[in-house]
Amino acid sequence: MNRRDSIRSLFLGSMAGGLALEGCVSEPEAAIEQKLWEYQYGRTPEEQAYDEKLLGQQFFENNEINKIRRLANLILPPNEEGNIEEAKVPEFIEFMAKDFPSIQTKMRGGLMWIDSHSNKKYGADFLNCKEDQQHEILDQIAFNDPNTTEQKQEVQFFSLLRNLVMTGYFTSEAGIKEIGYVGNQPNVWDGVPEDVLKAHGMSYDESWMPKFVDQSKRNDLAQWDNDGNLIS
Predict the structure, then answer these.
(1) The pLDDT value given to residue 166
(2) Is 80 exceeded by the pLDDT of residue 42?
(3) Which has the higher per-residue pLDDT, 63 or 207?
(4) CA–CA separation, 17 vs 112, rounded Å?
(5) Sign of CA pseudo-dihedral 70, 76, 79, 85
(6) Which of the four pLDDT bands, split at 50, 70 and 90, describes residue 150?
(7) Residue 184 has pLDDT above 50, yes or no
(8) What's the burial of 93, exposed, middle or buried (CB within 10 Å: 0-12/13-18/19+)?
């Protein structure tokens, strides 16, 4: 399952309602093709056309992207393994908002609430607040109320944003490296252990050993003569 399919399976079951209009942006074809190159993972022609359509549009305005970037860095601060910018989390969230229109209203409404609340409390937009003030605002919406089944809209927004940030980062190269996931990797096999061979009364033909267990040649293709003898 590729990255996009994994994301789709995570969000399809929990998102519903709320369709907002998408804004088109004028972007050179070459720039779109360059973006598309980042998503070459065996898609069908229909998927390619769909992605090209989404990548040629812009949903969030620049000031909204800047707020998303700042919020993402507060949720997941940079470390020695990577950061939000390297993982292209803001771009990921922009793409997801277009791929799943049902989250657009909640995302845009939450970003508007952030500025409205910070202006009322500190007399400044969220991006112009001090870091401790920004943390104080987020602390108010970062946790669900255990005494209610219907969470406030701002709490729902932050939960959605946090999930998008964590998903975007930990499905990126930097995030996968940070959690230490390496997947299946080939090991180095240098033959049956000597004690096992002796226990079964077996041994290797010394003349064949360099041809089979020389790990420096593990990626070389075997060569055979016309009589079927292995020559390399």
Answers:
(1) 94
(2) no
(3) 63
(4) 19
(5) negative
(6) confident
(7) yes
(8) buried
Query: Contact, 134 vs 126, CB < 8 A?
Result: yes
Which residues contact residue 170 at a Cβ distance below 8 angstroms, ignoring those fewer than 6 apart?
Answer: 176, 178, 179
pLDDT, tens digit, 9 for 90 and up, residues 156-178: 999 999 999 999 999 998 898 88
Q: Spell out the SS3 assignment of the chain.
A: CCHHHHHHHHHCCCCCCCCCCCEECCCCHHHHHHHHHCCCCCCCHHHHHHHHHHHCEECCCHHHHHHHHHHHHHHCCCECCECCCCCCHHHHHHHHHHHCHHHHHHHHHHHHHHHHHHHHHHCCCHHHCCHHHHHHHHHCCCCCCCCCCCCCHHHHHHHHHHHHHHHHHHCCHHHHHHHCCCCCCCCCCCCCCHHHHHHCCCCCCCCCHHHHHCHHHCCCCCCECCCCCECC
For residue 194, what are its two tokens?
């000597």
Predicted confidence (pLDDT) at residue 222 exceeds the cutoff of 70: yes
Q: Are 114 and 137 in contact (CB under 8 A)?
A: yes
Tokens of 134: 């920004």
Is the pLDDT at 35 greater than 90? The verdict is no
Contacts of 102 (CB under 8 A, 6+ apart): 15, 16, 17, 18, 19
Give yes or no for residue 218 having a pLDDT over 90.
no
